[in-house]
Amino acid sequence: MEQKTVPPRDPEADPLSTSRLTGDATDQDIESIRRRTSVFVYEWPVRLWHWINAALIMILIGTGWLIASPLPSMNFAEATFQFVMGYNRFIHFAAGQLLTVAFAARVYWALVGNHHSKQLFYVPVWKKSWWKEVVHELRWYAFLEDVPKKYVGHNPLAQVAMFFFMTVGITFMLLTGWALYAEGAGQGSLPDLAMGWLIAWVQNTQVLHSLHHLGMWFIIIFMMIHIYAAIREDIMSRQSMVSTMISGHRTFKDDLPD
Amino acid sequence: MSQIETFYEVMRSQGITRRSFMKYCSLTAAALGLGPAFVPKIAHAMETKPRTPVIWVHGLECTCCSESFIRSAHPLAKDVVLSMISLDYDDTLMAAAGHQAEAALQDTIDKYKGNYILAVEGNPPLNEDGMYCIVGGKPFVDQLKHAAEHAKAIISWGACASYGCVQAAKPNPTRATPVHKVITDKPIIKVPGCPPIAEVMTGVITYMLTFDRLPELDRQGRPAMFYSQRIHDKCYRRPHFDAGQFVEAWDDENARKGYCLYKMGCKGPTTYNACSTVRWNEGVSFPIQSGHGCIGCSEDGFWDQGSFYNRVTDLTQFGVEANADKIGMAAAGVVGGGIALHAAVSALKSAQKKTQSSKEEV
């Protein structure tokens, strides 16, 4: 019986060039792989939250828009059976409640998760090195720096944006949203006990409607900046961006020390 | 006035039968959301309790509260409550005038120290030491403070006394100020509306007289029994809202069908009042029923909430005629343009870099 043996390895051969994974790779590719490194940054709850959050925000913007400016009046059934606005509001409220749960879970994960999961919730203004990196990042976006820095987590500008638009922005939308929901739920209801103080504080809830509506635009503007910056960084920076939020791994395009 | 009469005595002296009196008691109980067991209680209180004196003062206002009040649907309520307060002080309704009237005010204050209810219609302007509203030769704010000093409780009638209303709308040149911001040491019950519903006004007074205490108030100090729900929550057009059936123009087919006025700027969803349940003029109608949206007159600063005819209202902080959508779209447009420009420069820069490095390689 012929014995199956692993062919003897050529001690001279480059292990990367003989690897099956790199079978179609050119010498340049192999050299590139050698210089790439990868760090595991985003654990699964962070990634899952990111995409759930993104989907819910899209739903909330769509349905929220239709609450403020409803679809043209329609008449395809008796009013009793035609629950168009009702379903739209239901979806908005349900998505808002899911957003609340997801955000609470995300806050919990910041407490128990890894170092990078906490970055969303603070801005390290007390760190001198952080400010230096802010200046560098501003210069990079102003085309004054030729070479960007490498970051494992968020770059300092991204961290500022994340903090103000997401942490503060979502908190704002949750507070105003729940206060508005409390109006329908009625005085003495759980949402009212939780958020009724905000109604009492602004007095006229038309103000709350306007603020909640402005908050939507705040988040739309964040989305525009966020998606642009993510794609641009994915192309022009020295690390992966988009795939990192899928796999959790940050890969670097070079192994240069700086 | 050697001895204070009871309500019942006043009613009987006005020629009201006992049968009508009992009817009034049961109607009042129903209006206050009380069970039938409270009818004899109300009757008993009316029969035995001395009338609580009420002083009714007028600041910056249009008298629409008084106009509403004297049209209270149940004639008995009007007769009883009105005869009661006109005896003491209400410069609009009382027979006395001038010095005589002011003397009556002082007389009531001295006689019933700590026992009378002060009803305030309108509010005091505070600029120029209150000179924008003079009552009896003195700034109204002085009369208000004087009358409030020994009051048992204060009722703020209408949007003026509760929130400031039109005279307090931006820029509020006279600094018209709601009562609770001037008098801070007395229990104050707000009965907002421009005007408040007559039955709500008499209901509040009847409750206070019957039970000798303030009705349950909500967070903003309004009687919960009338102000705990929105117009929207009890609107008879609500099914059309949920169905997505809206009036799109004042004279369209949907307006004729009585669809929801949300798109016409109805403020029912943000207005706490009893209009959609109690209605007006003996329950005949209310604004939405007559085809016009609610303007939110019982809400704080309703004059400063942009147009009565928009849902997404103008935000005056951002200049004339700019609502959340216009501001948001403008901001998104600027950011979008910035992104496009930045992307273009980024592409050019990297193209330039590539040509340079390929030149270096060659």
Automatic annotation (TrEMBL), chain A:
GO terms for biological process: respiratory electron transport chain. It is found in: Cell membrane. GO terms for molecular function: electron transfer activity; heme binding; iron ion binding. InterPro entries: Cyt_b561_bac/Ni-Hgenase, Di-haem_cyt_TM, Hydrogenase_cytochrome, Ni-dep_Hydgase_cyt-B. GO terms for cellular component: plasma membrane. Keywords: Cell membrane, Electron transport, Heme, Iron, Membrane, Metal-binding, Transmembrane, Transmembrane helix, Transport. This is Probable Ni/Fe-hydrogenase B-type cytochrome subunit.
